[in-house]
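We modelled each protein-ligand pair independently. The example shown here corresponds to the fe (ii) ion entry; the chain sequence is given first, followed by the ligand as SMILES.
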Amino acid sequence: MSRVDEIVARAGELPPFPAVIQRVMALMDDPLVGADKILDVVKYDQAITAKVIKMCNSTILGGAMPVSTLRDALVRIGNKQLLQIILSAGGTDLLQRELAGYDLPRGDLWKHSILCALLAESLCDVVKYDSPDKAFTAGLLHDVGKLAMAEFVAGAYEAISGAAASGKTSFLEAETQVLGVSHAEIGGRLGELWNFDAEMVAAIRHHHAPGGATGESKLPFLVHLSDILCLTSGIGVGADGLQYKIDYDLCKSNGIGSREFELAMIRLMEVEAQFHGIVAMFDLEG
Ligand SMILES: [Fe+2]
Ligand SMILES: [Fe+2]
């Protein structure tokens, strides 16, 4: 079995992405589907329902008139915030793992992913992408390939970080040179395995090089821009975080000039405040 086949096989051994979140993602694609329909799906997953209600009561509502059902939570905190909590809660078991190969202690990949999700959602108007919920989800899942790659990256750490430190290759290229495949490609394969739609798979697969994505969707570029800006925040930045550079020509060709770039940096500061609120909620879980 080749190294690439081994990594792909390891990807297949990861715990399944929560089925309820897969269904929520599919429903979000249809603009005619309301929050009611989404709650009808989520309510059958007791673990996620319990987490969401607990978080609403403990942090957002601060104990004032606690809610006991998802529907009450929807009325009190609104559609958008509830959906963010559902998606964030669904990803915690997978994304909170420690990933030694990337120097990411337990929780750090999840923190980076949440920040990227919030920023991708916030930058939809700047990048001219019209599905904020999908942007949030893609931001949350873009580095999911690291889950399957971490152990292999750890085993070849010196070769990969040495190649990346030379400055001639990015961390992603070094991964591909040494292991035969990158975490972005493995993430794309995981997305296919979990039946994500083609646009979501492309955003994950091409989040470091959105020019490689075929099709008209702005989602791969939106996730790329959000990811790279988040890495400048220093939150959840592992071994590879400082090895990626902003490609200003690529930004320009996607309509992001200096004015839009400044706006994006301001949005990053704005979503950081939101991010700390979400992290506080989940810390209460632990
Ligand atoms: Fe990445
Ligand atoms: Fe990332």
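Residues 143, 183-184, 207-208 surround fe (ii) ion (ligand 1) (CB under 6 Å).
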